[in-house]
Write the structure tokens for this entry.
Amino acid sequence: MKPIAMVTGADGFVGRHLIRKLLSCGYDVIGTSRSPHQTAHDGAVIQLSLDHSPRIAEVLNRYKPDVIFHLAGESSVRRSWNDIRGTFQSNVMASINLLEAVRMSDIVNSVKIITVGSSEEYGIIPDHVSTIDETLPLQPVSPYGVSKASLSMLVKQYAGVYGLSIVHARPFNHIGPGQSLGFVTTDFAHQIVQIEKGLREPVLKVGNLSAKRDFLDVRDIAEAYVLLAEHGRKGEVYNICSGVLTEIQSVLAEFLQMACVNIRVERDPALYRPVESRYVRASNRKIREHTGWTPKIDLRDSLRDILDYFRQQ
Ligand code: GDD
């Protein structure tokens, strides 16, 4: 019999890529979404609000998944500054509802759960730290980061106290075709394509270009999640990162080189954040050693795919 994977947030950017990957790896997939709509993949997507505990229990008892990938939640750091309550409801309370439902279910001793945190959990990186590994204390600076750090602490408790088989993933910036607007690569690519099509003045609005991030293609992230489900160790946290820091300025430069028109760049103060996390190089040693994962897609190829995605819209 094929293993059954349940994916919350199935209609989201990562959910769609993960479901494609799971299907190609031989899983049966049950995707869940607050409001399912037409998706590009072949997996079934059912309606499930994680605010409604009885319905979560019903779904778990009906489908009896072998593994749950919990992707649903708020993914925008920028939005979290304007909706702190909503961010906590989506990232913390909804996760508690899911974990409680698992704890009370028939599958409590058999199911494996992958929760998704973020590099934003680390937040303030002390000056003496040169590499971000999983042992670094969490000092998040954004409401989003605090919500994901709270989730990672809860995960430790559910694994340690209740014995749930949970692995917490800490992905860094994931990018790729199909991501919504509001993230740096999609905001840049979308404007460039609008300019190419003559739909706006040849002026690209940008925020903080001196920030640095560790970018990974969403398809590499999806593969990491599957490997964590198969080989990740209970109660452990895993960075998912490339190990390479890239300045936002360089992302912009790559995009401008790929653009078919000349574009003027203008800084927009509205795109700056109240506080930015400072990033240093991150380590992916633990996930490599425990699962054999390694990132495969080059940043340049991801950026080209994102631009082409918008050109085809
Ligand atoms: N969104 C956006 N739009 N960011 C910009 C822009 C712009 O026009 N110009 C510059 N930036 C800068 C931001 O200030 C930030 O320093 C950096 O680009 C990346 O911003 P985002 O792409 O919005 O990502 P993020 O780092 O805040 O959060 C992402 O990565 C996290 C993991 O590291 C999200 O994908 C999170 O869900 C994820 O957890």
About this structure: The longest strand covers residues 165-171.
